[in-house]
Amino acid sequence: MEVAIMLYNGITALDAIGPYEVFAATMKSKVKFVAKNKGLIKLDSKMGYLHADYSFSEVTSADILVVPGCSPPNYKTPMNDEESLNWIRQLHETTKWTTSVCNGSLILGAAGLLNGAVATSHWGSFDLLQSFGAIPTDERVVRHDKIVTAAGVSSGIDMALQLVAWELGEDTSKVVQLILEYDPQPPFDTGSPKKAPAPMVEQLRGMIQELSKKEPNL
Amino acid sequence: MEVAIMLYNGITALDAIGPYEVFAATMKSKVKFVAKNKGLIKLDSKMGYLHADYSFSEVTSADILVVPGCSPPNYKTPMNDEESLNWIRQLHETTKWTTSVCNGSLILGAAGLLNGAVATSHWGSFDLLQSFGAIPTDERVVRHDKIVTAAGVSSGIDMALQLVAWELGEDTSKVVQLILEYDPQPPFDTGSPKKAPAPMVEQLRGMIQELSKKEPNL
Fold first, then answer.
1. pLDDT < 50 stretches in chain B
2. Which residue out of A5, A50, A67, A102 is catalytically annotated?
3. What is the pLDDT of residues B19-48, one digit of tens each?
4. d(CA A155, CA A153)
5. Is B70 an annotated catalytic residue?
């Protein structure tokens, strides 16, 4: 199973590494980190890097394409870059599954892939998601034909486990969950806007909206 | 809050990136990826790289030290490297919290930090953990004085949320959980040996034990 994970400056590391680790643990996947240009990829936090081993021109097909998200100040970069959007459209022609994590769905939207599609994104980006003709829904992993979108950041782990179950069978997905000891026990239960205190959600929503109006600073 | 995450060839990416993403999302942490030598760090899967921005000699103290784990065939590398173990001992003198994810606890053990300590590791590594004088327990996040060990791979996210709660307050931890939309919904419930089918656990345990006898191949 060939998996292409798209990288770009400003990316949220866990959006990419969550699904990567799930696919890697199957021991039946070839995962490729792909960017416009090979080499170091600056993280949104500006505190580190991922690394693209392949450039767009070297990866022209995949069974699964994963488009991760990024912090709001930076998300406009790939959305406004025709070369990146064209690569996504080109890969999409070849995939079994075209997927996104967090506001990576906005990039799929900018590539024109979500028109009329039920989809999700980070909970703070639903307005933007709708602006691309998508029908936002607050499920954690959303399938529309062969497009699978996941909610914020950490949801890519759940999405990848689901994709592994569909492609390699439920037992493989269960083994991977056991290998990664994915038996989550966060100290609190505030991981979605439905569960967190309303004032916390509204304050954070305001911050995200302000940040997403700013120009990228990369 | 200064966080040093130790990297080394053969590392499991999610062990490092899970905690990184939690600390980064606080917007009150300076995270440094540190290795013996700066530069690209080969992942255990051999399908990609992380990047160390700092060498051991450049980071001589930290509030929190995180020692991630690795796939069994490689874990012996830092365990048998005096320079790495000395750096861990040196940092440990300065930390508020010395922590590990997955079989990173074996590296803490090799550094002599777990003698008589209650600790955890990946569920497949409890025998080795015990060989360092630790008292294994199957809780997901285990605190012993200022040493905090977490279970396999994905547990680093839960551990970091707990550390954030202790250091920066419960509200900050809750906000981070909401930012990362950490509301896990895996398709199955097989994330611990207690929950997975017994034959699956035993088969995987055998594989891990075989792999951990092999020499690292880096």
1. 218
2. A102
3. 999 999 999 999 999 999 999 999 999 999
4. 6
5. no
Please state the rounded mean pLDDT for residues A37-66.
Answer: 97
Q: What Å distances lie between residue B55 and A46, B80, B83, B184, CA to CA? A: 18, 18, 12, 35
Mean per-residue pLDDT, A147-169: 98
Number of H helices, E strands in chain B: 8, 11
Across the beta sheet with A147-150, the strand order is: A54-55, A30-35, A2-6, A64-67, A97-100, A147-150, A141-144
Tokens of A127: 């307005």
How large is the average pLDDT for residues A61-82?
A: 86
List of chain B residues whose C-beta atoms are within 8 Å of the C-beta of residue A12: 21
What gap in Å lies between CA B70 and CA B75, rounded to an integer? 6
Q: B91 in contact with A at a CB cutoff of 8 Å?
A: no
| pTM for this entry | 0.97
Structural contact between residues A5 and A32, judged by C-beta atoms closer than 8 angstroms: yes
For residue range A170-187, list pLDDT tens digits in order: 999 999 999 999 999 999
Query: Which pLDDT score, from 0 to 100, does residue A188 have?
Result: 98
Q: Which amino acid, one-letter code, is at B181? A: E
Give, in order, the Cα–Cα distances in Å from A209 to each of A51, A98, A125, B179, B208: 29, 27, 8, 13, 46
CB contact under 8 A, B193 and A178: yes
Over its C-alpha atoms, chain B yields an Rg (Å, rounded) of: 16
CB distance A184–B188 less than 8 Å?
no
- Residue listed under structure tokens 């089918």: B197
The C-alpha atoms of residue B68 and residue B5 are separated, in whole angstroms, by 8
Rounded CA-CA distance B43/B48 in Å is 6
Phi-psi category of residue A145: left, alpha or beta, with phi > 0 → left and psi -120 to 50 → alpha: left
Q: Which residues lie closer than 8 Å to B139 by C-beta, 6 or more apart? A: B120, B151
Domains of chain A, with CATH numbers? Answer: 2-213 (3.40.50.880)
- Across the interface, whether the CB atoms of B154 and A182 are under 8 A apart is answered yes
Structure tokens that stand for B211 in this block: 């792999």
- The pLDDT of residue B155 is 98
